[in-house]
Amino acid sequence: MERKLKILYLAAEVTPFAKTGGLADVAGSLPKALRALGHDIRVAMPRYGRISIEKFGLELILENVQVPLDEQNEPVRIFQGTLGKDVPVYFVDNARYFDRESIYMYPDDAERFTLFSRAALEMLKPLGFKPDIIHCNDWHTALIPNWLKTVYKDDPFYADIATVYTIHNLAYQGIFGHRVLEIAGLDEYRFLYRTDMADLDKVVNFMARGIYFADVITTVSPRYAQEILTPEYGERLDPLLRERKDRLFGILNGIDYETLNPATDPYIAVNYDADSLDKRVQNKLALQGEAGLPRDPSIPLIGMVSRLTDQKGLDILVEILDHLFDNFGVQFVLLGTGEQHYHDVLMGLAKRYPQNMGLFLTFNAPLAQRIYAGTDMFLMPSRFEPCGLSQMIAMRYGSVPIVRATGGLADTVKDYNPVTGEGTGFVFDRYDRWALFGAIVRALERYKNPQEWRRIQLQGMRADFSWEASARKYEDIYYKALASKKEDKGNAGEEHSQD
Ligand code: ADP
Questions:
Q1: Domain 274-461 has CATH 3.40.190.10
Q2: Which mutation among 13, 26, 30, 305 tests ligand 1's pocket best, with the greatest number of atoms within 8 A of CB?
Q3: In testing the pocket of ligand 1, which one of 20, 103, 169, 306 has its CB within 8 Å of the most ligand atoms?
Q4: Ligand 1 pocket test, candidate residues 14, 19, 25, 104, most atoms within 8 A of CB
Q5: Alpha-helix residue ranges (DSSP H) falling in 79-142
Q6: Distance (Å, whole) CA 411 – CA 414
């Protein structure tokens, strides 16, 4: 058996402390699963203003840690809290950079997450915690592999730490001007001139640096790991990803089976499970009421919980909603926030179809759970989808997903086949409103037959989307990262001795 590891897991958002999307859910659940496998995994994140010291029982454990930033030192404090039963979480506290209302979207985000990442490295010695692995997530923490291979490489405390870099969404790369290199103390190590990616040299691209310097790169589904090697999905980093493809692995996210469980969920009207699915209709009636729609169990109720961005397929959806309302009489409940033009279009539709459409333009986790529990079908017509958690939550709650075959959606939803009776949802290929329309109509046809529908629901509810299998895959990735770090160091040593 391989030895147990010490792991530092870094993320800009972690459920239940701060969340805008799927990254937080992953960071709030994967570490618990790795802890359960016996590893000493600890999490670090910034302490944003909204994270209450009292509410989460945070304890001040380090004061005045000096973190290099822009040729000076910026002091931070470290608080400690707990995730789940026993995963320690370190909160990097600095009022100037983190005591703000939101998590992102500030003009100094590059500086803020540089400070967070650098502080996570600098706190390790005073904490007396020397990890085998640092697991970085998304652009916010992508400079760590870069620092470890340059600034810290001759410090014996850091020299053997291997890095894993996980891409949750390649579309958000963290692109800034060169000034950031001075702030990060990396200006002597300018990028990486590459003839096929000349653009990269004009900017500082955090994501690219993570990919370039990490010992192993992962992304959140096997299909997305393939897709991002192509120009269509590669967001202009595909040449770099192709070069690193022997180190790139796709591991499907899981969902938190403890908190996302219709049998115990405290936010839904009536608890139920696969053996008591008849009770589920109470949640549908309650949701229809909450959304101001006619309460009628026989009307198909479709749901969506989503960031309202181009990625999520809203442009093709808004073009067919009126047809669905006019010709099929369906109800639709949408919870989400995002781009203003989608807010406007959706508000217009909700106004025109008050009997059909319930719209909540806000972020509300308990309401999201009521939507998973109360809808018959759940829409995710994404243009691209690295993994997607919502479709898995929907299946666990018995809402049948209608998805586009991309990324993690393709890996988790099996198209229903009426001949064999197999399948967990309805899947379409082309990114096109009529392909989406066709999938919804196919679902509505099956919905007319309650027994058949029940079978599809149960097949989804019984699929396994827990973290267990994926946590074991991350374990393998960590051993791989250690091995490749060792090998690279060996190679560097040989080169050195030939000098
Ligand atoms: P992404 O990470 O791209 O936003 P995912 O499907 O991976 O998409 O994860 C989205 C997560 O965020 C799900 O848990 C979903 O329920 C939740 N979510 C998204 N929008 C909202 C909202 N407006 N209110 C509550 N929860 C939301």
A1: no
A2: 305
A3: 306
A4: 25
A5: 95-98, 109-122, 124-127
A6: 8
268-319 per-position pLDDT tens digit: 999 999 999 999 999 999 999 999 999 999 999 999 999 999 999 999 999 9
CB 250 within 8 A of CB 221: yes
Q: Where in the chain is the domain with CATH 3.40.50.2000?
A: 6-254+468-498, 274-461
For residues 134 and 44, give the distance between their C-alpha atoms in angstroms, rounded to a whole number: 10
Q: Which of residues 152 and 192 earns the better pLDDT score?
A: 152
Centre of ligand 1 to C-alpha 20, Å, is 7
Task: List ligand 1's pocket residues with C-beta within 6 A.
Answer: 21-22, 25, 305-307, 335-337, 363-365, 368, 387-390
State the CB neighbour count (10 A cutoff) for residue 6.
15
The Cα 427–Cα 279 span in angstroms is 27
**Topology (CATH level 3) of domain 6-254+468-498:** Rossmann fold (3.40.50)
Report the DSSP beta bridge partners of residue 176.
204
Q: What is the mean pLDDT of residues 148-160?
A: 96
pTM tops 0.90: yes
Give the Å distances, CA to CA, from 403 to 155, 225, 317. Answer: 49, 19, 12
- Tokens for 408, please give them: 């993690």
Contacts of 191 (CB under 8 A, 6+ apart): 200, 201, 204, 208, 209
Those residues whose C-beta lies under 8 Å from the C-beta of residue 492, and which sit 6 or more positions away, are none
